[in-house]
Amino acid sequence: LCPCSFSNETSQLSTTECIRPVTIPLRASHWTSRNASRRSVECNGIFSDLKGSLLSRFKSGKREDAGTRKQPPVWPPPEDADESDQEDVLDADETPYVPEVNKDAELDESVLKEIASKGATEVRVVDVEKTFLTSQGEKKVVKGVSLRVEAGQLVALVGPSGSGKTTLLRMIAGLEPTSAGKVYFNDEDLTDVRVQDRDVGFMFQSYALFKHMTVAGNVAYGLNTSKRKGIVTSEQIRKRVDDLLSLVQLSDYGERYPPQLSGGQRQRVALARALATEPRLLLLDEPFGALDIVVRQELRTWVKKLQKALNITTIFVTHDQDEALEMADYMVVFHRGRILQEGPPFEVYESPNSAFVMNFISDPNVLPATCLAVRRSGFRTTKPYVLVRPDDVPIFYEERLDLPTTPATVMEVNNMGPEVLCEIKYDDDVTLEFNRQRYDFEEQPLEIGQRVHLQLKPLLLKAFHPEDLKA
Ligand SMILES: Nc1ncnc2c1ncn2[C@@H]1O[C@H](COP(=O)(O)OP(=O)(O)OP(=O)(O)O)[C@@H](O)[C@H]1O
Question: For the residues 282-301, what does the mean pLDDT come to?
Fold first, then answer.
């Protein structure tokens, strides 16, 4: 186990108590009470063992040799710290939670102005196609895509792996030539313009920082290589780097090296670097994909706030539907190289235009189209299956003669925090999950074995053939 934040190691831990092997990235900032309790939930109790093991190791005086480089303060504390200090560090119940970023921090107006000196840019792609030449012949991976991204919007491209999201992003960036179609920034045709002349900032999942360069050096890299922004003297560069590091709340980290940072901090450096040259457009490809769930959640909210404050048009690719629903102003669902649906996230969620979209952005139940409940609902289809979301199923204690309800028996009741997830079985043995807000559930609780009556609303069902859901 390596708790040292220099090493960037992860530990593979298996335990019979866990459903599957657990990988826990260890970082100094993890040893905090809120994270600790979340982590213990995440890994089914393994945390207490882990903590105990680290505690004994720490008490035995072993720690990583941090090398001869200038070292920032890290956990574990120096060996000469007295035992009571050590207990303090490890006592998850008493250590205050240290968030990855201060989401409520006021953004310095002068810094914002410095960085967001241009107006936001509208991006349009028109009938864009991409064909790759592979050993099996030509492969068209983007098939006539048209999309308008309004100036200042945060747009999420979602879809299964291989559906063409990254390829589209790369064509917008100029990293990949288009096979057909046009790319415009504010009505300026940039289709054949080189990447370095498009004024685009990138941030990818793999931090892509130069390990041998300090944080400040990484942020300054773009400025050093492109002197076209009027930032030419070393003093101007230093000022811009300071501003950017302050913006991403890493002012004290300029002299560190990337391996000395946590994943979230590295992504913040990558963001500062992407913003260094005042890009007109920010492109993020799975920016939080490599981060753990707690940090990811925090950075989502923070990046969204920053994006709005900078008013910079941003397109991001994500596999995480929740991330897209939470962050995006506009959501684009890709399937097999085409856009299947686009719109504000709540609209796409509320009114998916196909079984594929419903299945992709929520976690619906699959029912046979001929089952009792579907027939009783009045829904008619020739397709073999039907999707229904767990939050789209009204439930009644008594039979409702005015509504087409179907009786069922409660089989499971699982408290999931803010929601209660229940499973019922209809009399034809078809099962269905539905959820209720905990507050509603407490008002009207359900018990295992209880008879209930559920309504399926035809407008909220989507019929499908298994082929329709394939990536
Ligand atoms: N240089 C290339 N040569 C050949 N095929 C490629 C190349 N780049 C991408 N592809 C193929 O294009 C298809 C789309 O890839 P792309 O990375 O755009 O998908 P994606 O939706 O972003 O998926 P993921 O989320 O997994 O990155 C995939 O089948 C991929 O294998």
Answer: 85
Please name the residue whose Cα sits nearest to atom 18 of ligand 1. 164
The residue whose CB lies within 8 Å of the most ligand 1 atoms, and thus the one to mutate among 135, 141, 178, 316, is 141
Ligand 1 centre from 140 Cα, in Å?
10
Residue 180 CA to ligand 1 centre (angstroms): 17
Amino acid at residue number 61? G
Question: Can you tell me the distance from the alpha carbon of 129 to that of 141, in angstroms, rounded to the nearest whole number?
Answer: 8
Distance, in Å, from the CA atom of 326 to the CA atom of 106, rounded to the nearest integer, reads 22
Ligand 1 neighbourhood includes 166 CB (under 6 angstroms): yes
Query: Could you read off the pLDDT of 98-147 as tens digits, one per residue?
Result: 677 776 777 777 767 766 656 789 999 999 999 999 888 999 999 999 99
Q: For position 182, what pLDDT does the model report?
A: 97
| pTM for the structure as a whole | 0.75
The tally of CA atoms less than 13 A away on the side-chain side of residue 255 is 6
Contact 423, 431 (CB under 8 A): yes
**Ligand 1 center–CA 289 separation, angstroms:** 17
- Note the pLDDT tens digit of each residue in 231-249: 567 788 888 899 899 888 8
- 417 CA distance to ligand 1 centroid (A)? 38
**How do residues 365-403 score in pLDDT, each as one tens digit?**
999 999 999 999 999 999 999 999 998 999 999 888 889
Mutate to test the pocket of ligand 1, among 128, 145, 165 (most ligand atoms within 8 A of CB): 165
Model ipTM value: 0.97
Secondary structure (DSSP) of 169-184: HHHHHTSS--SEEEEE
**Run of H or E residues at 239:** helix 234-247
- Largest CA-CA distance found in the chain, in angstroms, rounded: 80
